[in-house]
Design goal:
mainly beta
């Protein structure tokens, strides 16, 4: 989806304002989700950026132009592609500005770059921005394989939650997974890098 894509590199760009940010300090957003993922064509996906800010700042997510190496400048997209339409007419993509949840589908085999910008606010003031490239590879998957699904926390539709605990406290919750293909197994892993 990028013009002359073979000459581009993975790009991560962050700006922090530690001088005028309320409190005088700031940590950049930490992403838990891998930036290189393989998907099947013709299937709907919902993924979350898992952008975490240990300072508790407000985050705002958006699609943005991928940046070129060297001096950061927007990459040139191939005809029919753009930052807001990185799969062109063969697919669709949307990002929730509050949660960072991305919903997408692509009907064409592809190796596309999607760039996500996260703006970080404290007390209504913009104090940091991060831009992260993600590589979306679309392949023809196993014929007849259906995607599994997972419930939200404790069987709800809530997939994102914050829980405050005292040190040495215990928490328990349930996330149930199902797969319409009865011979498949469903495994759920917790990436605990965001637990402090």
């Amino acid at each position: 989806n990028l013009f002359n894509s073979g000459s581009q590199s993975y790009f991560l760009y962050t700006t922090l304002d530690n001088l005028s940010s309320p409190g005088g300090f700031n940590n950049s957003v930490n992403f838990v989700l891998d930036n290189y993922v393989v998907y099947n064509v013709n299937q709907n996906y919902i993924i979350n950026q898992s952008g975490i800010d240990i300072d508790g700042d407000s985050l705002h997510f958006s699609l943005t132009s991928a940046l070129s190496t060297g001096i950061p400048a927007p990459c040139t997209y191939a005809s029919g592609y753009s930052a807001s339409s990185p799969f062109g007419s063969a697919g669709s993509i949307n990002i929730n500005p509050i949660s960072g949840t991305i919903t997408f589908n692509n009907t064409m085999l592809a190796n596309d770059v999607v760039a996500v910008r996260v703006d970080e606010y404290r007390g209504g003031q913009l104090i940091a921005s991060s831009i992260r490239d993600m590589q979306f590879i679309f392949i023809n998957g196993a014929s007849g394989n259906n995607l599994p699904s997972a419930s939200g926390v404790n069987g709800s539709s809530n997939y994102f939650t914050s829980i405050n605990l005292c040190p040495s406290s215990t928490i328990s919750f349930t996330v149930s997974g199902t797969d319409p293909d009865l011979t498949d197994s469903v495994h759920v892993n917790l990436k605990a890098t965001d637990i402090t």
